[in-house]
Amino acid sequence: MDKTPFLNVDELSVEFRTRNGIVQALEKVSLHVEKGEVLGVVGESGSGKSVTAYTAIGLLDAAGEASHGTVTFDGMPLTDAREADLRDLRGREISMIFQNPRAALNPIRPVGKQIEDVLLRHVQATRQTARDKAVAMLKKVKIVEPEQRYWSYPFELSGGMCQRVMIAIALACDPRLLIADEPTTGLDVTTQKATMDLIRELTREQNMSVVLITHDLGMAAAYCDRLVVMQKGRVVESAPVNDLFAAPQHPYTKKLIAASPGPNSTLEELTAVPDEMETANMAQPNVAPLPKRPKTAEPEKLLEVIDLVKEFPIKSDNVSLLPWRNNGQEEQAFRAVDGISFSMMRGESLGLVGESGCGKSTTSNIITRLMDPTSGDVIFDHRNITTHSAAKFARLPERMKIQMVFQDPTESLNPRYSARQSIAQPLRHLKGLRNRKEIATKVDALAELVGLPGNLLDRFPHQLSGGQKARVGIARSIAVDPLLLVLDEPTSALDVSVQAVVLQLLDQLKRDLGMSYIFVSHDLNVVRLLCERVIVMNRGKIIETGTADEVLNNPEEAYTKTLVEAIPHFEPRTEIERQVSAL
Amino acid sequence: MTRFLKHFRYVMGENPVTVFAFSLFTVILFMGIFGHWIAPYDPLATNTAMTLKPPSWSHPFGTDHLGRDVFSRVIVATRLDLGIAVSAVALSFLIGSALGCSAGFWGGWPDRIIGRFSDTIMAFPLFVLAMGIVAAMGNSVENIIYATAIINLPFYIRVSRTEASVRRNAGYVNAARLSGCTDGRILATQVFPNILPPMMIQISLNMGWAILNAAGLSFIGLGVRPPDAEWGIMVAEGATYIVSGEWWLALFPGAALMTAVFCFNLLGDGLRDLVDPLRRT
Amino acid sequence: MRTKLHQVGRRLLQALPSVFGVVVISFALTRALPGDPAIYFAGAMADKESIEQVRIALGLDRSWLEQFFIYVGNLFKGDMGLSLSTGQPVLQELLTRLPASLELTFIGLGLAVLLAVPLGILAATHPGSWIDHVCRVLVTAGVSLPTFFTGLFLIYIFYYLLGWAPSPLGRLDILYLSPPTVTGFYTIDSLLARDGETFISSLKQLILPAFTLGLFALAPIARMTRGGMLGALSSDYVRTARANGLARATVLLTYAFRNAALPLLTTLGMVFSFLLGANVLVEKVFSWPGIGSFAIEALVASDYAAVQGFVLTMALLFVVVNLTIDVILTLTDPRVGLDD
Amino acid sequence: MRRRDFLKTAGAVTGASVLPFLKFLPAEAAGRSDTLVVVAGQGINSLDLHRKGTNRPSYQVTVNIYDRLVRFGVTELKDGSLSYDSTKIEPEVAESWTTSKDGKSLTFKISPKAKFWDGSPVTAHDVKWSFDRAVSLGGFPAVQMKAGSMTKPEQFVVVDDMTFRIDLPKPSKLTLPDLAVPIPFIINSKVAKAKATEKDPWATEYLHKNPAGSGAYKIARWDPGQQFVYERNEDWALGTKPGVKRVIVREVPSASTRRALTERGDADLYMNVPAKDAKEFKEGGKIKVSGAPIDNCLHVLGLNLKHKPFDNKKVRQAIAFALPYKEIVEAAAYGRGKPMYGAKEMTPSTIKWPQPFPYDTDFDKAKALLTEAGFGKGFETTLSYNLGLADWQEPTALLIQEALGKIGIKVTLDKIPGANWRTAALVKKSLPMHLENFGGWLNYPDYYFFWAYKYGHLFNSSNYKNPEVEKLVDETLHMSVEDPLYAANVMKMISIAFEDVPRIPLYQPYLDSAMQKSVEGYASWFHRQLDCRTISKA
Predict the structure, then answer these.
(1) What pTM, to 2 d.p., does this model score?
(2) What is the ipTM of this complex?
(3) pLDDT tens profile A301-323
(4) What's the CA gap between A452 and A446, in Å, rounded?
(5) Interchain proximity A425–B171, CB inside 8 Å
(6) Shortest CB distance from B215 goes to which of C146, C273, C284?
(7) How far apart are CA A396 and CA A386, in angstroms?
(8) I want to staple B71 with a disulfide (CB 3.0 to 4.6 A). Which of A460, A482, B61, C314 is the partner?
(9) Which chains touch C (3 or more CB pairs under 8 A)?
(10) At the top level of CATH, which class does the domain B80-280 belong to?
């Protein structure tokens, strides 16, 4: 092998022209990949991981420009290469797979054809052989019935299958380098693992070099040989994977590692390394200006869910032509929640865990009375709250007592409301506050409580960072002192370091205000941090209940087991050992 | 306010076409408000000694078949045309978006009824429907406005219905529910303001269309009553003089009309950016 | 395929209420038109007695409701009544005139698509650049003029002054006779009859009105193309295609444009119906013997049967066009039919 | 299956309107020495004038393809253009006629030269059937026949095959001229009767689309809404053989396009040219304009006596003094109108009709009259006009509006679509102030007064009622022109019209037609339609 690395990024700087002037996206980033090596590029959103990859293969959009540095691939300079040459290279020598595979495939072209397009483009097949080759590729990525699937459209395939197709397209021409950009984001944990295993298997077969871009340290640890940590467009650390975890050098790396929840980490550990970015303009959420709710002496039942069922009608195409007949006897319905019952105590935190589509969000929406159940009851604070329709519930006094924190902090804030207006909303409508001054004082207090600096209160959602938006959402939900707070994946859209801070904030609030939580999440590791008890759901049914530690460490049910196992851990040493033993 | 001005300046800086459109709009607005004072002649005063005179220093746009000053008439007409466009669009915007929002937000039978209603109007040849309405109700300015508003309705219903149904389960809508807002309030404070940006494009297109529509009605004799000056009717009348060489009768009002419609159409993107909070810095 | 057939059937059924709505509204509207058809029909200098005779003969002495049911009953028999102003059965009028309008609209729309789609793609591939702005200004200018004004000006320049265009006398120059009717489209019929001269003549007659009409359709098509292409070009699948080194043409056409074309198709349907309605004025200016000019005259003359017939035809056309678009969409877009 | 039906119907439609003998226009028609291309604003809607709903342009079909018993002669005017002569009645199908002593019956001798297109001779039976039809079908034909005192089929007598007699209740000067108007045209009754049905005994459905006549032209082709083509009847022997073999009448709705076609030489003849175009054609010199003031026709401002304050004579006179006559003739009629103002005396000196009224623009006088009438402060009213005639009515209305504003009368303009115009103005007579353009086909002042000044009559849109006028008109209408009382009566009528002014005449309009210099023999007619029989092309 010659001395220059296979892929070499040398002091690469990239600038973007935006409405606020030029933004430096990459600042002298240097990294390299050797033949056959799996390089992990980790970092939080905005750290420049993807930009690096895009720049390397010339996919940067028009607003971006590489202002400095070079990228060479197998000795060939890429930064100055002609677009035509790059085009020959892409897909043939360097391939890339993306996150959100369903969107990354042409929605109106059969997947087989999309594989063929690449094969034909790079003259890897003739018109006669392309079809067979494409089917062979589908087979290779372990798609069952490849002949039939050849004609499938992306929307007919599951997310995991789409990602396999993506892999098939990427590997169709046997490239020498594969760049995988967050290849498992948006997939369920079990699918994540299968996908990553497949990538590893196929690339190893060809001794391909792989660049794995991910925000998930666990995954990086599990699948990479060497890691590069990036932050704000800079490489802060680069080391072989076990060295990095054993002895992180850079504070940011340390913080990242600390903030990633593992099966045994505690909340305190997550934020052991302070986040300079968040703290820079954020007050510490330590003051508790609200009066603490006196704890009731004996535990009292707060919520009881009895035999809850929610059905959604399936729109079948097989309806009769006559509109009045299509609601006949054989109407089909999909049971999203299939007769679940559970209860929780006052002050307790309950985790609701499961993969997407298991019914956990539906359940939480019913409990918060945003949705009407098909049947079953929800007894809250000794009153059956399902007797009122969701539409009427808004005006009942119980409304105040059940609040919710939403999954996506961006989407849950009205883009036309400033943070202050958003937080004040429940105060106005539920508490009926009218006095401006009073509201302002209250909002200030709430902001302080959740650690949101007062100067941010007049900003609009798009002017706030993800963590700040999450805080606004939380402040809004606790504004009316609810008894029960339903947290619907409150951190899934956040970076790990922000997640850590938010989780801690939630924990603190719970302790200070004596609220009960229902924490809905797909991530057992996160749930464990906040909840005493966990309910695992699958296909609308409760699979397993128990204390968090029990479920995580000693799952009884097979499903729970796969769920737990699929979570990538980073215990580098054991991982290496496993790899060694596998070889 | 200063924030709005800053935002306004930003939106302007973003797009030269928008700057152009907004400056034009300012001019049109100015003419609409002060036109009667600017006009050098009485727009209604005839002078049979001075009929069909080509443009000159005293009559920059020439005179018409009754010796009226075309320049003054073009200027004075601005107010009426602007009035027709704005009120027709305002009417259909208010009614259409109210109907569409409710339909999209609640779904169910109101949605079906409103949907059918707008489908029915859409199935009409719109210009002929406008003709029919004006012919049936009589050709006055109000009826032209009503007719224009009615034929524009389905567009607003459609846009707002789609946008509202996308947002009916948005996070912030649910959040408002949790905050104890009733559906009506949610519709008014959460859903409606957020569908404004896409509606702005529709509004700007329709403003232009309203004027063209009035002009078309004038062409077949169902427009504004004489002697009021209105661009459409001036173009329509002037159009018959083109062949006989009196081009100025149609050209100048036509140019004014085109400028206005052009300006309204181009205004859309800028308007959308102005009301879109996401574009705010 | 069966389910797709069902969908088409269901769409048809869904359209029924709107068609019925159109029948009701057009009936009510034409009754509200000023002018007494009996007086008009009785002709100049008719006395009271003969007016009454006509009123009874036309059934106008009955109640509105009765008239409505008679009208609907006749509709089912395929009878749309008699046009007062032309003295022909409305159905026959519409059938002879519809091809003229359709031909004009098709050609106008075709011209617009040929111009607007490339402009839209051009703008989308250079968003924010001066090319984009120029495209926008160009197509917007197209919709900013009343069609009758554009039409008259074009006639003035190209016929009167330059003499390039043939006389604006409808579908054929005075000296040509219409080709034997097969489709009613003169261009097609003349080709079928292997009559090149008539074909050229009918094409020449079409250019100016079709251009006038097409100008009006540029903006929505270009806007939609641009929007769709922008969306498609920034989409993940185009990024994938580029990441796989696919040729620029493949990316632009097979990947981006095909996806952008789907919403464009829906827009085209709308634009077509719109043009069909909007060409009433163009037809008047160019003496085009289509249904639009027929409708204007009918409306001004309070010729209620003709107006009703016209409106109903347009509504049916609207339904047919939308249905066609739906069918094309279901055939080209595999996703259609899953949602909704 | 739908498609095929559709095609079949579409095919049938064109098929029906094309007569078998002409399938293609020969290509050499490009030379066009024998082809005349006419442009018209409105197309015909029927080939049968007796049918209900037949529009005005369709009258010309009757004129050209059918014959009548008699016709008006043609005379040359001072300026060299040709016009019909209301005083000269010539034989057509009738080779001669006699009036009985008591004047109560007219006997016509039918010319053996008169042959229908199918070769069969025109007989008295055909004439009777046609006349019976004209009085039986009601509507306009019956009304027009009535003007000639013909109301019942019994009045029409077949003496023998070639002799035909009309019996009248009393002698009338109007009967003979009334036989020369388009209405009493002669149909081939054998053809028509064969197509008649029980429900349709007068074969209106058949004749609507299929002419059966004897005229100098046949219809070769009719594409409704587009054009129709006349083809010369080579066997016609009732007059000079027409000079043009084929006439194509093309419908061109836009007036400016009609003008452009004419100027560019694509159209030979343009009937009914708007005044402005006529004036400019004349000035341009490239296009020949033939026009004459239309007999017995006036453009007037009607004041409705049922609406206050127009019941007040002083108010009407005030308005008559306030109208801007000169401006109207200049700006609305472009000089193509004969002034009808400025007579010096309140009593007429001749029985010439129309003649100038004793009013002129005089605001002081108008104001004084208005004050005298008690409306010194003015009042508000609405001036309605017909959308279909907007080319002269709109500028006129605008000028009137402005002028009346000067004496304190605030006028709102109201444009009424053509269809509603008849209803509102003539049938319901509900418009307070309006513009009107009646012209009588038969050129007698008393005939004009009969229609426009008699209470309840169609064109008396002013609801004018004066017992003296009623009596005078009844007396005079059928009276012979030679009758010594005639002139006195007419003079009296006119002086009452001067005094009462329910209709204020603005001017007498011209009927202008523009044509290429090669077109000769064009004559203007009272019915304002094209008679192509006299035309030839150089």
Answers:
(1) 0.84
(2) 0.82
(3) 888 998 999 888 765 444 434 44
(4) 8
(5) no
(6) C146
(7) 12
(8) B61
(9) A, B, D
(10) mainly alpha
